[in-house]
Write a structure and sequence with these properties.
Helices cover 38% and strands 13% of the residues. The chain is of the alpha/beta class. Bound molecules: zinc ion (ZN) (2 copies).
């Protein structure tokens, strides 16, 4: 009851601040919406079948739960990573504009996509204790001006009435992951994160947040640190999945 009330309040606040027009085509909309129906239809969704661990969609027909080759051949520390959308087309463009072109108002739409990931049956019934955003290295954050994962975690926190705390910190400034293959990424990330001083996650069920899952290496490495610090479970949710 309380959660719903807060969510409605949040919605009302948002619609006061932002005129309701479609983010893509500019068509006017009902308050609280970000995309018109036509543009929304073009947003690529993740549909079954997909890997039960990392949500990698499988092009073909598999019935029942399966694990993709990527997850079968490495140690993954998160219990599952969920996403409702593919990081392609409109989704990719919007997230890119939000992150790199400082189009901050787009965070509301991206947070909507993140919220949709929580309808997934792998996380729907988990009673989470804490939302944790994936940290940026302080130098990277200064350069960008914000941490997109923190902004998304805070919006989600207000929406579902669950505390969000930046308990992790990034201690290694890693070069961009984009050009690296999977094993290089794992190597690049090793010991890149640690628990902040005085942070405590012992006995907690953690919901880890990032904007996009690419290979899952970053989320897995964060989950490893959280579990080593005593978290009971770590599920990850992202607004999109590459
Ligand atoms: Zn539109
Ligand atoms: Zn997988």
């Amino acid at each position: 009851m309380i959660a719903l009330h807060k969510s409605e309040l949040f919605q009302a606040t948002v619609s006061l601040l932002y005129p309701a027009t479609c983010t893509i085509c500019g068509k006017s909309l009902r308050a609280g919406k970000y995309l018109c129906d036509l543009c929304d239809m073009k947003v690529p969704r993740i549909v079954a079948p997909f890997c039960r661990r990392c949500s990698e969609p499988f092009e073909g027909s598999i019935t029942g739960a399966f694990t993709c080759a990527n997850c079968a051949h490495r140690t993954i520390y998160f219990d599952a990573a969920v996403a409702a959308y593919r990081g392609r087309g409109i989704v990719r463009e919007i997230i890119h504009e939000f992150k790199y072109a400082r189009q901050m108002h787009l965070r509301h739409l991206v947070a909507r996509w993140l919220r949709a990931a929580l309808d997934d049956e792998r996380v729907r019934d988990v009673s989470f204790d804490l939302i944790v955003p994936v940290p940026l290295h302080p130098a990277r954050q200064r350069e960008r001006g914000f941490n997109q994962a923190t902004l998304l975690a805070e919006l989600l926190s207000a929406d579902i009435s669950l505390p969000s705390k930046p308990v992790l910190e990034r201690i290694r400034y890693t070069t961009t992951q984009t050009a690296l293959d999977r094993s290089e990424r794992m190597e690049n990330l090793h010991n890149a994160f640690r628990l902040r001083k005085n942070a405590n996650v012992r006995g907690l069920r953690v919901l880890l947040i990032d904007d996009v899952l690419t290979t899952g290496s970053t989320l897995s490495e964060c989950a490893r640190v959280l579990k080593r610090a005593g978290a009971i479970s770590v599920h990850a949710a992202t607004a999109a999945r590459a």
